[in-house]
Specification:
The structure holds three protein chains of three kinds. Helices cover 78% and strands 0% of the residues of chain B. By secondary structure, chain B is mainly alpha-helical. Chain B folds into three domains: 125 residues; 109 residues; 237 residues, no CATH class. By secondary structure, chain C is mainly alpha-helical. The relative contact order of chain C is 0.09. The chains are: A mainly alpha, B mainly alpha, C mainly alpha. At the B-C interface, helix 8, helix 10, helix 11, helix 13 and helix 18 of B face helix 5, helix 6, helix 24 and helix 25 of C.
């Protein structure tokens, strides 16, 4: 059990690390997805631990749905950003500051 | 049933608005549908209010009562307060956008606006942490698209990408906290959690969870240093959406956080929130001093105003017996006031943008002279934001200050800092006022400008009138605020004794 | 619209004067305003408040009448509706402030007169200087109001804990404080806060910087601000809450010192100022210093009597200055001179006002100024007393200089001055008459000053007693000194001419423009604030990675704070 929990937390950390260090928009979005997967894992673990697997399942399915919507919107924004900047790097998205 | 309907009417109408907008391309018709849906939802909220007032259980038909929906959504006064404020602002924004938005994909706009509103209405009523999260995300996702709605421009896209990434990271962190709580207790019911978590009080794990919740939902509530998305998103969004974002979305984020925190029990995070609030108001006000973009200036001022609100919340949570009621009351009243005054300020900025096509304060110089009604409204909103009577901002600030005085000692120091901040904010508010309304009219501006449509003017004037009303007769707002504050105070352990001491009963 | 404004002004003036006579023992019934916090919208006819209200009503009315002609020039550029609307709101708010029976109502109107002064100082909004002066007045006074608001909520909280049903009531709070129910540390905070609020509003040292700049307002508004409304509010507040804070050992001496220092500092500045209106502005701060010091000597009578007399003669001086400026189109006294030939009525009334300001015996300023000295002597506040005596000498000098440069000697103006129309000279004559005779009213005045003020001590004084008191005291020497200064300066200057601007004027301008370098002091803090702001805005990098990093940092910071606090 502890190993699952550790794996879940590790995934979240890796995902967060990706959003902090990656400069490619797609990689950042992949980082977000990794975080979401880690959280799903913690939910499954929780369901198994407390014997409420059915609740955990519905939560995780809903979570996947939400993530799918978020990523779809994120990708559409990335496409739009690419149209404007001809680049996927976040270096091109630094005009709004101060 | 009523709660579900209040949310479902909006979501259902979102679909309808999209189809109608797509087929007819009529802004007026689509907007009208949205307005009716918001009014219908408002009627449902009013029904919930009536039922709660009578002290009777909500009228669930027996078939409904069998389902688990009943526990997912719980009627309460905090929800009524949030829903009422949100629907008020959303209705005015819907009217405003009928003429303000000049795009073909108007159906999408109104559908998303309704979806966002349904999310906001929902978070106040959510009965468990996951429902809270889902409704919160519904609100967030709709707002991502709305921020980046004008996708031909580079600015909304850049702001949208940043907003999406930061906000998603934040809500995932909060969700991580929720998942950890779930793995401990096997339930997410807000009412059941405090007693289940009692064993964990004081443990480092629970602190980590609370930290995740504060940081995660704090992104939406614009707590410094998680505020970085806000100035970009609020200034780049269409003005009606800026008004919604500043006026109610970030406050809904705070209320989401508040509900989650209350469920997690009695860690002393109130103190922490007060310090975060202090940093938030200073950072917001100081950076706002440097802005030349009107909407960006208002965005930073929203950060500062969130600082005032969070200070009230923090004092209430940190000292429930001393300031539980007075702090919540001040904070919630400020949310209502902020929806009115900042919503109005953004709509006003939008009207100027509509006329001149610029948000640069210097280029807007003297526009308030040319449109005196808009100038007066702008003056009202700006002075309300600065907390000058007789416009509405002053009363809630006094209430928050009272909470600090109730705490005493360093609470009074916090009050001094809060009032000092409203003096700092005067520097940029008066600068903007002196330029936008009283400044000289540039030589190169065309002599005849396009007139403002009636439907753009109407919501602004309505909000200005409301600002004056709430400033002159603050009791009008207390009707909505007090039950909600009492509800929260009873949840955080400011018991009936405290309410008696605060002079409620 | 103008006729309506005059009518409203007249009715207000009559009503406020009628209130003085009508004052009974019963407090006025109050309507519930904000039941949720037990706040009533209550008015109370206290002795102090009635007179402050009557001053606001009557002088306000005269200023409105005077505006009819004076503001005509500006009407082409700026809508007069806005002017009269704000003026009447200003007067009305001041009256409400003076009659308020609870702190919350007082606070609201306190802020409202702040807003009105901002809007009226910036009335000629096309001039950048006017806009800046308006903002400055608003910001500086609100800086002082930090204290007032904190004081009010602290007292509210304390009263709430006592279970009072009227937690904001001023007299209720005073009686609670006197019976020792309000903890001393809370009373200390409230006392300091109220003092800060009063210092800001009454333009006392070190927050005096806004008042001279407020001279950008139309002269009628200056008269209103200086004589009838805004600056009196601070003195009123201190006098009203005097019994409550007199419990604190430091409160009264501090007030006396603040008043004395303000008086002296600005009297020095008035000596070298060249702008007629700004001389008057400095003199206002100086005279308010006297009132503040009188409150510091725990003398309600001296402070309020001087407030009344000052309101009359300062309104007179301002309206005269308006008349002069109307005729010469300049505010620089070095470009005036010799106006006595062209403007006889203005000349005579201005001279009366000058003499009252300088404290020449028998003019109203003399009596109340002497009362201030007596009070300070009686209270044993020697330091402030000495400073104020020095100020009295300086006052006589700058008053005479102001009068001389404007009306005496040869004409240096390029305009063709002429006497002003009756709408302007009528208020002048009425105020001039008031300046001559208002002190005769002292018996009636003192008997009514104590109305509904159970915690204040007000001495009853008849005119005869006042006469004996004043002329029997060694302090009469100050009055004689003022006369001597007038005579000597008059003789010397009529032979050798008044001092002309030369090299040192540049330095004098520097000192007066910065109000004794205090603009630089406050400016430093503003610059510092802006510098901090620019450093902070560097953290808004706009880089997505940094934004995510801030989340992680926020999480770690929150966690560390938790662990640190346990």
């Amino acid at each position: 059990m502890t190993a699952y929990a550790a794996a879940g937390l590790a995934l979240v950390t890796i995902g967060l690390y990706a959003t902090i260090t990656r400069t490619n928009l797609l990689q950042i979005i992949i980082g977000l997805e990794i975080m979401a997967r880690g959280i799903s894992l913690v939910f499954i673990l929780g369901g198994a631990q407390s014997g409420t697997m059915s609740a955990a399942q519905s939560v995780v399915i809903t979570l996947i749905l939400i993530e799918a919507v978020t990523v779809a919107i994120a990708l559409s924004l990335v496409v739009a950003a690419y149209h404007h900047n001809k680049s996927l790097s976040i270096a091109a998205l630094r005009r709004l500051k101060g | 049933m009523e709660v579900l309907l209040a949310i479902a009417i909006l979501s259902g109408a979102a679909l309808l608005a999209y189809v109608v907008g797509r087929l007819s391309r009529s802004r007026m018709l689509t907007g009208f549908i949205a307005f009716v849906a918001i009014a219908g939802s408002g009627y449902m909220v009013y029904q919930i209010w009536n039922v709660l007032q009578d002290g009777m259980p909500l009228g669930w038909p027996s078939a409904w009562a069998q389902t688990r929906l009943q526990s997912y959504l719980v009627a309460n006064y905090l929800g009524i307060f949030l829903a009422g404020t949100a629907l008020l602002l959303a209705a005015l924004v819907a009217v405003y956008s009928m003429r303000y938005m000049h795009r073909r994909d108007i159906g999408k706009f109104y559908a998303l606006l309704l979806l966002m509103t349904s999310g906001i209405v929902g978070v106040g009523f959510a009965g468990d942490l996951f429902t809270l999260y889902v409704l919160f995300e519904a609100m967030s996702i709709a707002s991502f698209v709305l921020v980046a709605f004008e996708r031909e421009e580079w600015e909304p896209i850049e702001a949208g990408v940043k907003y999406l990434v930061i906000s998603t990271v934040g809500s995932l962190l909060a969700l991580l906290g929720i998942s950890i709580v779930f793995s401990w207790t096997g339930t997410l019911d807000l009412a059941a959690l405090p007693s289940l978590l009692e064993a964990q009080v004081g443990s480092a794990q629970l602190m980590a969870v609370v930290a995740l919740i504060i940081v995660g939902f704090g992104v939406k509530a614009a707590i410094v240093p998680m505020h970085t998305w806000l100035p970009d998103a609020h200034s780049a969004a269409p003005s009606g959406i800026s008004a919604m974002l500043s006026g109610i979305v970030i406050e809904a984020g705070l209320i989401t956080m508040l509900r989650a925190l209350i469920a997690l029990g009695t860690v002393n995070y109130g103190l922490l929130l007060v310090w975060l609030a202090l940093v938030t108001m200073f950072v917001g006000n100081l950076i706002a001093l440097r802005q030349s973009d009107l909407k960006r200036m208002f965005a930073y001022s929203s950060v500062a105003q969130m600082g005032y609100i969070i200070m009230g919340v923090g004092l209430a949570l940190g000292y429930p017996t001393l300031a539980g009621f007075s702090g919540m009351r001040g904070a919630l009243y400020h949310i209502l006031n902020h929806a009115v005054m900042k919503g109005g300020a953004f709509l006003c900025a939008g009207a100027f943008l509509w006329i001149l096509g610029t948000r640069d304060i210097r280029k807007l110089s003297g526009i308030g002279r040319k449109f005196p009604l808009m100038g007066i409204c702008f003056l009202i909103f700006v002075l309300a934001l600065a907390g000058a009577p007789p416009f509405n901002g002053w009363f809630s600030k006094v209430l928050i200050a009272k909470a600090g005085a109730d705490v005493g000692g360093w609470g009074i120091f916090m009050v001094v800092m809060l009032v000092l901040n409203s003096v700092i904010s005067l520097f940029y508010y008066l600068d903007a006022l002196n330029t936008v309304v009283f400044g000289p009219i540039p030589e190169d501006r065309p002599r005849t400008l396009k007139p403002l449509p009636f439907l753009v003017v109407l919501p602004i004037v309505a909000l200005a009138a409301l600002s004056l009303l709430l400033g002159v007769l603050p009791d009008a707002g207390l009707v909505l605020v007090d039950p909600a504050a009492e509800y929260v105070a009873s949840l955080i352990g400011g018991g009936v004794d405290v309410l008696v001491a605060a002079g409620v009963h | 619209m103008k006729a309506y404004s005059v009518l409203v002004g007249l009715v207000t003036a009559i009503l406020t004067v009628a209130l003085i006579g009508a004052a009974g023992d019963q407090p006025l019934t109050a309507v519930y305003w904000i039941p949720g916090i037990d706040a009533t919208f209550g008015l109370q006819l206290t002795g102090i408040g009635m007179f402050v209200a009557a001053v606001a009503g009557c002088i306000g009315f005269l200023a409105v009448v005077y505006s009819l002609k004076y503001m005509e020039d500006l009407e082409r550029e700026y809508t007069p509706t806005r002017y009269y609307f704000l003026t009447i709101l200003f007067i009305g708010s001041m009256i409400a402030l003076a009659l308020a029976d609870n702190f919350l109502v007082l606070y609201v109107f306190w802020e409202l007169i702040g807003f009105c002064s901002f809007a009226l100082i910036a009335y000629e909004y096309k001039r950048a200087k006017a806009r800046q002066a308006g903002s400055k007045a608003f910001i500086v006074t609100r800086f002082g109001d930090i204290g007032l608001l904190v004081g009010i909520v602290v007292l509210w909280s304390a009263m709430r804990n006592l279970g009072a049903d009227q937690p904001f009531s001023i007299s209720g709070t005073i009686s609670a404080a006197l019976s020792g129910q309000i903890p001393l540390h809370l009373l200390t905070i409230a006392g300091a806060g109220f003092m800060a609020g009063a210092i800001g509003k009454s333009a006392q040292f070190p927050l005096h910087v806004w008042l001279p700049d407020a001279m950008e307002a139309p002269t009628t508004i200056s008269a209103l601000i200086h004589a009838a409304t805004l600056v009196n509010a601070g003195i009123y507040l201190c006098a009203r809450t005097l019994p409550m804070f007199a419990v604190l050992p430091w409160w009264l001496p501090m007030l006396a010192w603040v008043g004395a220092i303000s008086a002296t500092l600005t009297a020095v500045l008035a000596l070298v100022e060249k702008d007629l209106k700004r001389v008057l502005a400095f003199s206002t701060i100086s005279q308010l210093g006297y009132m503040m010091a009188a409150v510091g000597a725990a003398s309600v009578f001296a402070s309020q009597f001087h407030l009344l007399n000052h309101a009359i003669f300062k309104a007179l001086l301002f309206l005269c200055a308006g008349s002069v400026i109307h005729a010469t189109h300049t505010r620089n006294m070095y470009e005036m001179g010799g106006l006595k030939r062209f403007m006889p009525i203005t000349h005579v009334t201005f001279l009366i006002g000058t003499m009252a300001l300088a404290g020449i015996p028998l003019f109203n300023g003399f009596w109340s100024k002497d009362a201030v000295f007596e009070a300070l002597l009686g209270a044993g506040q020697t330091g402030p007393l000495v400073l104020l005596i020095i100020t009295a000498v300086l006052t006589a000098i700058y008053s005479w200089r102001m009068y001389w440069l404007t009306f005496q000697a040869e004409s240096r103006t390029e305009a063709h001055p002429h006497e002003s129309p009756w709408q302007m000279t009528l208020p002048l004559s009425l105020l001039g008459l008031g300046t001559l005779i208002s002190w005769l009213y002292v018996g009636d005045y003192t008997s009514k000053l104590g109305n509904q003020l159970p915690y204040h001590e007000v001495d009853l004084l008849e005119v005869g007693e006042l006469w004996h008191h004043t002329f029997g005291s060694p302090l009469i020497i100050i009055g004689i000194l003022a006369v001597a200064i007038f005579v000597i300066l008059g003789v010397v200057w009529s032979k050798r001419g008044a001092p002309v601007p030369a090299g040192p004027q540049m330095w004098a301008d520097l000192v007066t423009d910065t109000k004794g370098f205090f603009d630089w002091f406050w400016g430093f803090w503003v610059v510092l604030m802006r510098a901090v702001a620019s450093v902070l805005s560097l953290f808004q990098t706009g880089d997505l990675n940094y934004n995510s990093l801030w989340l992680a940092i926020g999480f770690i910071a929150v966690l560390l704070m938790f662990l640190g606090w346990g």
